[in-house]
Write a structure and sequence with these properties.
The protein has helices at about 35-60, 130-155, 160-190, 200-225, 230-255, and strands at about 80-90, 95-100, 105-110, 115, 120-125, 260, 265-270, 280, 285, 290-295, 295-300, 305-310, 325-330, 335-345, 350, 365-375, 385-394. The chain is α+β, with helices and mostly antiparallel strands. Among the domains are: about 80-90 and about 300-394, Efflux pump adaptor protein, beta barrel domain (Elongation Factor Tu (Ef-tu), domain 3); about 100-125 and about 260-300, RNA polymerase II/Efflux pump adaptor protein, barrel-sandwich hybrid domain (OB fold (Dihydrolipoamide Acetyltransferase, E2P)), CATH 2.40.50; about 155-230, Methane Monooxygenase Hydroxylase, Chain G, domain 1 (Up-down Bundle), CATH 1.20.58. A 6-stranded antiparallel beta barrel has the order 1-12-16-14-13-17. It starts with about 35 loop residues before the first helix and ends with a strand.
Length: about 400
């Protein structure tokens, strides 16, 4: 019986390292924090440092900056405050707005803003090609009608009168021939009734009568030609000429309006009509404000200006009465105070839309315009349309 085989014994090799047994009293990884916990600690420390920095910055004392200019102050013990607008010094206290009386495309401008103009000086021109042709046609029509009236006054024409005289002479000669023929036939019939038939004699008599009538017509035509034109025809022709002449004059007057001129001396404050733009009797359309503006605005000289102050209606009872009204104007953005000279009060309380340019007020705030005048300071430039603060001694 065979014996069981003995398993082979492995060859001795290098001994495996012996790992010491862990200490049963120390838990695993107790000496090291996990990664999420470490991030939380870093964030908390950074937030604490940031909070300290912000608290330090916010608690530092901040010194106020000095104002760029001193705000306006009441110069009187008791005063009324009002908003005002600087305007040119005009008789009416307002600027002169120029609106053309005709419409069309602007083809030329002759002045610039800020330029001093005289009365009647051209400001800009509107295309007048159609009106110029229409005016020329009206002039030719009046000229043609005048020629017809002159023709009526010159009648009778010598050539026409000569024709009428010749026709009368011809009619007279024809009558003589017909009368001689009639007389010859009548004498022949008297001598011998059988020599001339009754029909031939009657025809000769009728022909002589017709010749006499033709002579009468020719004579009357000669008289009519010599009389000349009828006075009623002359009056009618003259009236037609007068109508055409007036139409021509109106056309020329309208043609002149295509050159818009200054209505008086002054300074061009605004020119809102660029070459190529359209202008009408309503002015020029402005794409920024979406409203019609005056084609041009003229103001007075620069030596004196006006201020239109708008006093609230609830303060009207405190407004001083009489011709002596003390007032002072403060310029916004500058330490400049200018005394004002009272001009007049515009006695009409109206909605306050001049400053805001609002046509529909949510609150019905109404004001009374009070107009003052002042002498401009050459060292400080002021412009019409500038808003100012006005204090009126109450």
């Amino acid at each position: 019986m065979p014996m069981a085989e003995t398993p082979p014994v492995a060859a001795p090799g290098p001994e495996a390292p012996i790992t010491p047994a862990p200490d049963a009293t120390v838990p695993p990884a107790a000496h090291k924090l996990p990664m999420p916990g470490r991030y939380l600690v870093i964030v908390a420390i950074a937030g604490l440092v940031l909070a300290i920095i912000v608290a330090f910055v916010l608690n530092r004392p901040v010194h106020p900056q000095p104002p760029a200019f001193q705000p306006s102050a009441n110069p009187y013990p008791h005063a009324i405050f009002a908003n005002g607008i600087i305007e040119s010094d005009q008789t009416s206290g307002e600027n002169i707005n120029i609106f053309p009386e005709v419409s069309g495309r602007v083809v030329a401008t002759y002045v610039s803003e800020g330029e001093t103009v005289r009365a009647g000086q051209p400001l800009f021109a509107i295309d007048d090609s159609v009106q110029r042709a229409t005016t020329a046609q009206q002039g030719l029509q009046a000229q043609a009608q005048q020629s017809l009236v002159n023709e009526l006054h010159a009648e009778p024409r010598r050539e026409t009168l000569a024709i009428a005289v010749a026709q009368a002479a011809e009619a007279r000669a024809n009558l003589q021939t017909l009368v001689h023929t009639r007389d010859k036939l009548a004498r022949s019939a008297t001598l011998d009734p059988r020599s001339v038939s009754r029909e031939a004699l009657d025809s000769a008599v009728d022909a002589a009568s017709a010749g006499a009538a033709a002579l009468a017509v020719a004579q009357r035509q000669l008289d009519l030609t010599r009389a000349g034109a009828w006075r009623f025809d002359i009056q009618s022709g003259q009236a037609q000429y007068d109508a055409l002449a007036h139409a021509y004059a109106a056309g020329k007057a309208l043609l002149k309006k295509y050159i818009v001129t200054a209505t008086g001396p002054g300074v061009v404050l605004s020119l809102n009509v660029p070459v190529g733009g359209y202008v009408s009797a309503l002015g020029a359309y402005d794409s920024y404000t979406q409203a019609n503006l005056p084609a041009a605005v003229l103001g007075g000289g620069a030596a004196t200006l006006s201020v239109r102050a708008y006093v609230d209606e609830i303060l009207l009872s405190s407004l001083p009465r009489g011709a002596v009204v003390r007032a002072q104007m403060s310029i916004r953005g500058a330490n400049l105070h200018i005394p004002l000279q009272f001009v007049r009060i515009q006695p009409y309380v109206s909605p306050k839309i001049e400053l805001s340019n609002e046509r529909q007020e949510q609150v019905d705030l109404r004001v009374l315009p009070v107009i003052f005048r002042f002498r401009a300071d050459p060292a400080f430039k002021l412009y019409p349309g500038e808003e100012v603060d006005v204090y009126i001694s109450a």
